Automatic annotation (TrEMBL):
<feature type="transmembrane region" description="Helical">
    <location>
        <begin position="240"/>
        <end position="260"/>
    </location>
</feature>
<feature type="transmembrane region" description="Helical">
    <location>
        <begin position="215"/>
        <end position="234"/>
    </location>
</feature>
<keyword id="KW-1133">Transmembrane helix</keyword>
<feature type="transmembrane region" description="Helical">
    <location>
        <begin position="272"/>
        <end position="293"/>
    </location>
</feature>
<feature type="transmembrane region" description="Helical">
    <location>
        <begin position="48"/>
        <end position="66"/>
    </location>
</feature>
<protein>
    <submittedName>
        <fullName>Membrane protein</fullName>
    </submittedName>
</protein>
<keyword id="KW-0812">Transmembrane</keyword>
<feature type="transmembrane region" description="Helical">
    <location>
        <begin position="299"/>
        <end position="316"/>
    </location>
</feature>
<keyword id="KW-0472">Membrane</keyword>
<feature type="transmembrane region" description="Helical">
    <location>
        <begin position="161"/>
        <end position="182"/>
    </location>
</feature>
<dbReference type="InterPro" id="IPR022791">
    <property type="entry name" value="L-PG_synthase/AglD"/>
</dbReference>
<feature type="transmembrane region" description="Helical">
    <location>
        <begin position="6"/>
        <end position="27"/>
    </location>
</feature>
<dbReference type="Pfam" id="PF03706">
    <property type="entry name" value="LPG_synthase_TM"/>
</dbReference>
<dbReference type="GO" id="GO:0005886">
    <property type="term" value="C:plasma membrane"/>
</dbReference>
<keyword id="KW-1003">Cell membrane</keyword>
<feature type="transmembrane region" description="Helical">
    <location>
        <begin position="133"/>
        <end position="155"/>
    </location>
</feature>
Length: 318
């Protein structure tokens, strides 16, 4: 086994343990009164907001399952909608326990149920990720614009103007040098970054040239609209966050998206990240919000995804 594979395997084992440790650490550092207060706050939550949030999450899964066919059909495959949906939920189920395993098991699942070659199914999953990354970057840019006043105020109050100007000049110079290196360097690491960027461009071009590109783009936007809606309605479960405007919600959503990638399904990291970002904007209750959103979505993915995995294992033994 190569060093790269050893490293990848080690990370898949270590990162879930990091998530478990962070959960334990966060709970253990709380006093008994703090844990009691958090539990009371969770118990008094209006369940209607949790149900709506879960429904938004379900709609995003259904849309993702339907969107998948637009990538598979040009390859000559027409998976059943039920198979696509189960494969996606199996992927989320797997990601809860082993980081980045969900994409692989999703490809394995659709291969078992609809006889689609794994390598072709996996290739379409990578293409999906490119589309999702583009939308996430758009959401991030929107959040920065909406919160520009708060960011400028923060840097004005906390940053040295001369230091900021120097940092800006260094950043621009670094960007220019970096672009030149990307274009001309033959170093293996630089080439990988360049190939990744070119791959993103190729992915965008392939989506735009797709036969049903309009439907694909619609479902991509719908999926992310559901993600934001799932996040938005959950704010009403925590009084200290209920009044947060769209800009704060989008900024917190972006931070949460990155937190989800830090460990397996954001275990341990997500509530901490939510507590930090909402506190930055002056809102209390971010940790409770994080536990509620992460906890309810994780339970849904584990229960429904686990059932889907059993169905595939029992009825598709090929």
């Amino acid at each position: 086994m190569s060093t790269k594979k050893h490293t990848s395997l080690a990370l898949k084992i270590i990162l879930p343990l990091v998530g478990v440790f962070l959960v334990w650490y966060q709970l253990s550092k709380m006093s008994g009164a703090e844990r009691s207060d958090m539990w009371e706050a969770i118990k008094t939550v209006d369940p209607i907001w949790i149900i709506i949030s879960l429904l938004f999450g379900l709609f995003s899964h259904l849309s993702r399952a339907y969107r998948w066919k637009f990538l598979l059909e040009p390859l000559g495959y027409k998976p059943r909608f039920s198979s696509s949906f189960m494969a996606i939920l199996i992927g989320y189920f797997a990601n809860t326990f082993i980081i980045r395993s969900g994409e692989v098991l999703r490809g394995v699942a659709i291969s078992r149920t609809d006889n689609i070659p794994f390598e072709k199914a996996f290739g379409t999953i990578v293409a999906e990720r490119i589309a999702d990354l583009i939308v996430l970057l758009l959401v991030m840019a929107t959040a920065v614009v909406l919160q520009s006043t708060a960011l400028v105020s923060y840097f004005r109050d906390n940053a040295n103007p001369i230091g900021f100007i120097i940092l800006l000049i260094v950043g621009i110079a670094t960007g220019i040098i970096g672009l030149r290196l990307l274009k001309t360097s033959s170093h293996s690491f630089i080439k990988k970054i360049r190939d990744f960027g070119l791959g993103l461009l190729d992915g965008i071009k392939s989506i735009l040239k797709m036969k049903h590109n309009g439907a694909f783009i619609f479902h991509t936007l719908f999926i992310w609209f559901m993600y934001i809606g799932m996040f938005w309605v959950m704010k009403f479960t925590v009084p200290g966050i209920a009044s947060a405007p769209l800009g704060v919600i989008l900024a917190s959503f972006v931070i949460g998206a990155f937190a989800m990638s830090a460990t397996n399904a954001g275990m341990g990291v997500y509530p901490i990240a939510m507590g930090a970002i909402f506190s930055f904007f002056g809102y209390e209750g971010g940790i409770i919000f994080g536990w509620l959103l992460w906890g309810t979505q994780t339970i849904f993915n584990v229960v429904v995804g686990g059932i889907c995995a059993l169905i595939v294992l029992i009825f598709n033994k090929g």
